[in-house]
Design brief:
Elements lengths: L1 E6 L3 H12 L4 E8 L2 H10 L6 E6 L5 H11 L3 E4 L6 H11 L2 E4 L14 H4 L2 H7 L2 E4 L7 H13 L2 E11 L13 H9 L2 E5 L2 E5 L5 E6 L3 E7 L3 H9 L5 E7 L2 H12 L8 E3 L2 E3 L1 H8 L13 E12 L2 E12 H8 L3 H18 L7 E4 L5 H10 L4 E4 L7
Parallel strand pairs: 1-2, 1-4, 2-3, 4-5, 5-6, 6-17, 7-12
Antiparallel strand pairs: 7-15, 8-9, 8-12, 10-11, 11-12, 13-14, 15-16, 16-18
Helix pairs in contact: 1-13, 3-4, 7-14, 13-14
This protein binds NADPH dihydro-nicotinamide-adenine-dinucleotide phosphate.
Length: 399
């Protein structure tokens, strides 16, 4: 069917690239381009024998011109951005300049303020529409599958959804006292920020980790979970008509929280530069350098993830509740693609999003979040490509 340029070659990209190679009828040719070319070449070597033709390249995606020349040289049908949120806008600029469609998994965040919002990317709406190209934003698990679940619930089970609780549980144990399951810098920025949720048309802000609840997750057991700000709340508040409240909860173990508190208290999670031996360094970036690389957690992580949404609303005049979730096993993911479940649950939907844009099932000129398209083809693809979903018509609710 076509060609995809994949930017980034970290934990998530590695899964997506494995999945593209499993789906070689659609991804006939891919180019893996990242800051460190050796990683791209090593992955290509691992995938030797795949029917997908793989090229590699070095690129600094902070530099729009470098991305433009790569696109001009390779002529992909879609650019799949699996680098970091900081590169979203430079890559979108390159897509505009070359009239190439764009897919990512995380919304733009400026380096110097830990505040991620869609406003910067939504501002490209008119330019993408006029250029006749599609940008699909946030095609990971959360954001991503959680938005598709919401669209599916609305299409098949509700006349109106009033409340959504997104529950992200990781029951995985990697054996380290402290490590993050995806890019440590992005992960720690997310969890040390203030929490917030959407209620009655406005944001309600909380202190970090101020709201705690418990839930008994299938495949994991009882876990404490904490309310966080999360990016899909912003788009779902726009795209689910009649919504009154959206919250996002993530589970954290006590060891993770104790270490995080200590690191925060000593200033190691700060993103303000400090002068160290005559050189400016950012404490959080230094911390990232000493923590285990998330890509190395695969072989040691055991247990499962359970991520999904609980919906409350109205169907034919009656109150209704409904839950959709996926359970993913860390070791099974590792056996299949050499990565733990956090990368797996993000990398598979990224491949699916790119496939649907490429084969035009989800193509519309402009900038869109996943819940703005028909959820059915995505839901079918989740079952087919390794993230089967389950439904519960009488779920336990979160108070
Ligand atoms: P990693 O840090 O493992 O990988 C990031 C990759 O991007 C690395 O290969 C890195 O290169 C490359 N990169 C960074 N800067 C540049 C640049 N300027 N130019 C070119 N390449 C660059 O991160 P993850 O794989 O864990 O995460 C990837 C993305 O997925 C992130 O945006 C993250 O926020 C998102 N994500 C989304 C989730 C969801 O459910 N929606 C869940 C988890 C993650 P190098 O190897 O040289 O460092």
């Amino acid at each position: 069917m076509g060609k995809a340029l994949i930017i980034g070659c970290g934990g998530v990209a590695s899964v997506t690239i494995h999945k593209c190679c499993q789906n070689s009828d659609v991804f006939q040719e891919i180019m893996i381009a990242s800051r460190t070319r050796d990683k791209c070449d090593a992955l290509k070597a691992k995938l030797k024998g795949s029917r997908t033709i793989i090229h590699t390249a070095q690129v600094d995606a902070d530099d729009t011109h470098q991305v433009i020349s790569l696109i001009e040289q390779f002529k992909p049908d879609v650019v799949l951005n699996l680098a970091l949120p900081y590169q979203d806008l430079t890559i979108m600029d390159a897509c505009l300049a070359t009239r190439t469609s764009y897919v990512d998994t995380a919304n733009y965040e400026p380096r110097d303020t830990a505040k991620f919002e869609y406003k910067w990317q939504w501002a490209y709406q008119d330019r993408f529409r006029e250029a006749g190209i599609c940008a699909l934003l946030g095609s990971g698990f959360d954001p991503g599958v959680t938005g598709v679940f919401s669209a599916y619930a609305l299409k098949h089970h509700f006349d109106e959804i009033h409340k959504i609780d997104i529950l992200d549980a990781n029951g995985g144990d990697h054996g380290y006292p402290f490590a993050t399951n995806f890019n440590p810098e992005i992960n720690i920025r997310e969890v040390t920020a203030n929490g917030s949720f959407w209620e009655n048309g406005r944001w309600v802000e909380t202190e970090p980790m101020a709201i705690k609840r418990g839930y008994d997750f299938e495949g994991i057991g009882k876990r404490d979970m904490y309310l966080l700000h999360h990016e899909e709340i912003e788009s779902l508040a726009e795209n689910i008509p009649g919504i009154k409240r959206i919250r996002f909860f993530m589970t954290f173990g006590q060891s993770y929280l104790t270490h995080l508190k200590c690191l925060e208290n000593v200033g190691m999670t700060s993103i303000k530069p400090v002068c160290f031996q005559g050189q400016d360094i950012i404490p959080l970036q230094f911390l990232k350098a000493v923590l285990p690389d998330p890509a190395s957690l695969g072989p040691r992580t055991v247990g499962k993830t359970n991520i999904g949404c609980i919906f409350q609303g109205i169907k034919e005049g009656k109150e209704k509740k409904y839950r959709l979730f996926n359970i993913c096993d860390h070791q099974e993911s590792y056996r299949e693609v050499g990565s733990q479940a956090i990368s797996y649950t993000t990398g598979v939907p990224a491949m699916i999003g790119a496939m649907l844009v490429m084969n035009k099932t989800w193509f519309r000129p402009g900038v869109y979040n996943v819940e703005e398209f028909d959820p059915d083809p995505f839901m079918d693809a989740l079952n087919r490509w390794g993230l089967p979903w389950q439904e519960d018509f009488n779920p336990v609710m979160v108070d």
